[in-house]
Write a structure and sequence with these properties.
The structure holds 2 protein chains of 2 kinds. By secondary structure, chain A is an all-alpha fold. Chain A has 16 helices and no strands. Chain A is globular. The chains are: A mainly alpha, B alpha+beta.
Chain lengths: 446, 168
């Protein structure tokens, strides 16, 4: 038996198991979903309050003008990285453990980016002026400033959202066609009939599909690297101590992959149990992801150390003061949460017993995401609260409105993600079948 | 007179390949093969030529990088933002958006090419299509010009080992 799939399976079994997940949800799912919608409504209410009364109701004030919103924006963009990493880079590297987990990872990417995209809109306050960012001929007779990293970010995140959505949908089409051919009832037949676009799986379609899919993967791979590099330049191009450093692009990319892969594991563990997919998402897949977490956690730990070393080696007073403040100042607790969750707890994955223990995997991956959120908090809130002039130092205190919007963002993400995996195949059944040896006469699926 | 479609349903890859060999040796060229998953060996057996999608994608990528350059160059000069004697247009700061547009327009062209060459979206499913082709069966669908050709197609499919042969 191959590690990545049980080769005694058949094409029929894979179809049955995955299509079964599309059956109407039970009461438990509906109750959970209602709870999530309540959280989402709380977030929407808080945003509405901010629009009504102005930015004063948020905790944004001098000197930390980029507070929880930008922290959470960077967090969600980071989460959105693992999906495309798994689907594109591992596709090009022909890593077989990818096939079982890439659909849920891609869905996670698309919805994480959709969540991230809300935060610049929330942050600008007067959200109805967001179109000022779009370079189009206008009555103001001015163009956007292409030399600003914030403008690069608009293009990078916009391109990433578009390409990830296309990549996700193209991968789904053959699987939706399978769901269409199994569907009973008018609603499902109409939904899957429309979404499958009339896909039949003829040899001509597969030929062009394979070529196009390869190009999507080839485009998405450098795009993954570029997006978080560009996000890091939002900071690195500034002169704020703690931001103005050349290590930011690789440091941000590694951190994004760490948080994204951790989130995939956090989501896959309950899903495989709830949808009875243990035969398809095996311990081998989870362990492979744990190894990827271990690798990226080590890179992130190296980046944290380098930041401190360069602050010391540069002999720049402001940079040194910033990093001393980080580890020992007002927000030291946040710094040590970050170090513990991102660098120390993942070290437990060196032990196979931990890598193959599902409760341990779940807890550690949740902790990593807590740590990754605090990493962005430390970079943004700590750096801004302790810039050059002691007279301009100040603390950042989140308001209840910001906390409500933060809660709402998690609920928005979960609402989209759960609806998606309930409506379309949550695992790539076509690509799971691809892993099986093709059936030969007298030697079916050997 | 309308054409007759003959469908053969196969459970095995090797018997499907036998049917393809027979189609080639007997000079039948109006047929389609259906497969529930990606099997490169099968697709190469049918047709080893490259998909033209690549050229459309390349065209899109080149349009993207060109538009990215021209947009920033023209808009930079049309409304110069002069800061510290920096030029109104500079290539290093323009590369990010040029790259993003290369990927964006290239991907959109790639998607357009995929849809165009695959004939998507199509309303309804083609004559002779069987829903099991997306599940666990392989299919060979032959378009016959007349009754005699349809009978020959049926015989060919049975000879290859089709488990079911049907007309539509």
């Amino acid at each position: 038996m191959a590690k990545h799939i049980d080769t005694s399976m058949t094409y029929r079994k894979i179809t049955d198991d995955i299509v079964r997940t599309l059956e109407p949800p039970g009461l438990g799912f509906i109750a959970l979903y209602l709870l999530i919608l309540t959280g989402l409504a709380t977030g929407a209410f808080c945003w509405a309050q901010q629009i009504r009364f102005g930015m004063g109701v948020s905790g944004l004030t001098h000197p930390v003008m980029w507070g929880l919103y930008i922290t959470t924006f960077v967090f969600w963009v980071g989460i959105g990285h693992a999906g495309t990493l798994i689907s594109a880079i591992l596709y090009l590297l022909r890593a077989p453990f990818r096939n079982a987990v890439y659909r849920a990872s891609e869905a996670m990417t698309v919805f994480a980016v959709a969540t991230a995209g809300l935060f610049p809109l929330i942050h600008i306050g007067r959200v109805w002026y967001f179109y000022y960012l779009i370079p189009y001929p206008n009555q103001r007779q001015i163009w956007v400033n292409f030399k600003s990293p914030l403008m690069w970010d608009v293009f990078a995140v916009g391109t990433y959202a578009t390409v990830s959505t296309i990549f996700f949908y193209v991968g789904l089409v053959p699987d939706i066609a399978t769901a269409r051919d199994r569907a009973t009832g008018f609603f499902k037949k109409a939904l899957y009939g429309a979404l499958s676009l009339g896909w039949t799986g003829s040899h001509k379609q597969w030929k062009h599909y394979l070529a196009a899919y390869g190009f999507f993967a080839a485009f998405a791979t450098p795009l993954v690297i570029s997006v978080h590099s560009v996000v890091s330049w939002d900071f690195a191009m500034g002169l704020v101590p703690g931001w103005h450093t050349t290590i930011f692009p690789p440091y941000f990319v590694a951190g994004a992959i760490l948080s994204g892969v951790a989130m995939v594991v956090t989501l896959m563990i309950p899903i495989r149990k709830w949808m009875h997919l243990e035969e398809h998402i095996t311990m081998y897949h989870l362990e492979s992801m744990a190894k990827l977490i271990l690798l990226t956690s080590t890179i992130v730990a190296y980046a944290y150390s380098t930041e401190f070393y360069i602050a010391f080696y540069s002999a720049n007073t402001f940079e040194e003061a910033q990093f001393v403040y980080r580890a020992t100042g007002d927000y030291a607790w946040a710094f040590w949460i970050m170090v513990s969750c991102n660098c120390i707890f993942p070290l437990l994955f060196w032990f196979k017993k931990v890598r193959t223990n599902i409760p341990a995997l779940f807890v550690i991956t949740v902790l990593i995401n807590v740590g990754m959120w605090f990493e962005r908090f430390n970079i943004i809130a700590q750096s801004l609260s302790h810039e050059f002039m002691p007279s301009a130092f100040g603390m950042m205190r989140p308001s209840i409105i910001e906390m409500g919007i933060l809660l709402g963002s998690f609920c928005w993400f979960l609402a989209l993600f759960l609806a998606c995996i309930k409506l379309v195949p949550g695992m790539a059944l076509t690509e799971l079948k691809e892993l099986l040896p093709p059936p030969l006469k007298g030697k079916s699926h050997e | 007179m309308s054409k007759i479609t003959v469908t053969g349903v196969f459970s095995y890859l090797d018997t499907t390949e036998t049917a393809i060999d027979l189609l080639k040796t007997r000079g039948v060229d109006r047929y389609e093969i259906f497969s529930p998953t990606i099997i490169p060996r099968l697709f190469e057996h049918i047709d080893s030529t490259d998909s033209p999608v690549r050229w459309v994608t390349l065209t899109g990528a080149l349009i993207g990088i060109t538009c990215g350059f021209l947009m920033q160059w023209w808009m930079g000069l049309d409304w110069p933002i002069r800061v510290s004697m920096k030029p109104a247009f500079a290539l290093p700061t323009s590369t990010v958006i040029m790259f993003e547009l290369t990927v964006l327009i290239g991907s959109l062209f790639n998607l357009g090419a995929l849809f165009a060459f695959c004939g998507l979206p199509q309303i309804g499913l083609p004559k002779g299509y069987d829903p099991r082709f997306t599940d666990d069966k392989f299919g060979v669908v032959i378009e016959a010009a007349d009754e005699a050709a349809a009978e020959a197609a049926e015989a060919l499919l049975r000879e290859a080992g089709a488990e079911e042969v049907a007309r539509a």
